[in-house]
Amino acid sequence: MTDSENGPADRSALGLLLVLVLTLACGGLLEMALPAEAPAWAVGGIPVAALATIVLYVWAVFLPERRLRRRSLDFYDNTQRQLSALRSSLTALRAGDLVSAGTAGRDLGHDFEMPVRVALKSLDGLVRQIQGGSIEVAVAAQKVEQTAADLASGSSQQAAGVVEITSTMEELARAAGQIATNASTQAQLSADAERAGDEGAGAVEEALSGMEAVRERMEAIASRTDALGRRSREIYGILDLINEIAQETHILALNAAIEASVAGEHGQRFAVVADEVRRLAERSRESVESVRRLLDDFSESLREAVIATEEGSKAATEVLARARAAATSIEELRGALSETAQTSREISLATQQQRTASDQVVLTLKEVSEVIQRMADGLKQFTSSAEHLSDLGLSIQLLTQAFRIDSKRSLKQVLALWAERLAGFSSHAEATEGVLEELLGGHPFLELLYVVDGRGAMVSFTVNQKLTGEKELPGHVAVGQTYNDRPWFAGVTRHEHAAVTPVYESLLTGEPCFTVATPIIGPEGELEGVLGVDVNVRHWTGI
């Protein structure tokens, strides 16, 4: 018991002694002061009064003071116990250990335990909500970032496609303009061809009329040739008659010459006449032969003319038929040319409209391209915002990980439970390695797990090869390496509380990570070592 605790007891005993002394002293003085002839009741009443005074003091002052002293001592002990529990709870709360703070708060008494428990429960729920919310925000941000990246990639491809479509539409517009020009030219040519067809149709009609006249002329020539053939045959009959006359004349001349020679001198003149008649008959016969040859030639020419006329008539008939077929074809061609001209004009109008529409489409596509480009720029900013949101979620998660709560998402709580399993044999590499492997199996977001002893020397470690791959481990990750210069080791060993580091670049993977470490407390309360894990930031949402 301290001096402050002994003070009230000494003062109460001293007061009682002082009252006894004063009462006895006053009684003795009163007895000495009484005369000898004083009555007996007066002399006997003094001790009674002194005793009554002492009893009254004991009853009114000493006993209440003793009861108050006992209550004060009980209150003092209870207060000290509550102060100790409050100090332990606040110390644990300052370290972020809500579990230990709740355990220490059980000794605060009913009046203080319930508010502290409610406050810790509210803080625990708030931490849980913040932890879950930060993970959900980070997961959503990662999805948004991935979606934005996909949309940005799709926008880039779409922008490239729009550029190609715009180029194609510009080519189509130019082609449509060229088609419109060609269609207009074709329409003009079709109109010219239609006019030429009209003129050709007229010419064909005239040719038909001419061919009809030629055919009639050929038929007339054939008829006249036949008539000449008949006349030539008549001439042959006349020539035959002349030839017979000349033959008979020749015979008569011979007979006359014979008779003249018989007559002598009187028949000389008659002989001369007969000779002349003979020569005339000879000449007539020669002329008949000449005329016959001429008639033969003429007949041959007539036959050739008849044949030629017949062939010409046939040819004229065929040409006439072809001309009529040509007239029909030209008429059909005129109709086709008319339709072609109309179609060409419609094509020209349609292609002009198409060109106008293509120009409008090109303008629209350029506007779409600008919109896509602005959307791509916005998506880049959106991606940056999503990355910032993901980083913010990680920062919030690190703040919540500074608290130890009774939750599977609290890495301090998880490591504290596993550190309890390691207590007593944390220096045995084989045993700790099995525990680390088991711990890694349930937490795939960890890239490195390790146990160091109280001096900071590595006892054992486990690497998550799904995150690190088959790469060679750096030299500092090895059993026996010293880690006593690491901030997390210094913080844990100094305060014997779990610690969470800020994000840093992992020496194992080169990726961002953060470390969570907790002390391993032995059965006697001594620090055996430190259990530490490195959390890969790329997979931290798996917490």
Oligomeric grouping of the chains: single chain
Largest sheet: 6 strands, antiparallel
Euclidean distance between termini CA atoms: 52 Å
- How much helicity do the residues have? over 70%
> Per the principal axes of the C-alpha atoms, what is the gross shape?
rod-shaped
Notable traits:
543 residues; alpha+beta; Helix Hairpins; Beta-Lactamase; 6-stranded antiparallel beta sheet; 9 helices; 77% helix; disordered N terminus
Provide a compact summary of the structure.
The chain is α+β, with helices and mostly antiparallel strands and 543 residues long. The chain contains 9 helices and 6 strands.
Question: Could you explain the architecture of this structure?
Answer:
There is one protein chain. The protein is built from nine helices and six strands. The protein is an alpha+beta fold. It has three domains: 92 residues; 200 residues, Helix Hairpins (Orthogonal Bundle), CATH 1.10.287.950; 134 residues, PAS domain (Beta-Lactamase), CATH 3.30.450. Strands 1, 2, 3, 4, 5 and 6 form a six-stranded antiparallel β-sheet that branches. α2 packs antiparallel against α3 and α4 packs antiparallel against α5. The longest helix has 154 residues. The radius of gyration is 73 Å and the shape is rod-shaped. The two termini are 52 Å apart.
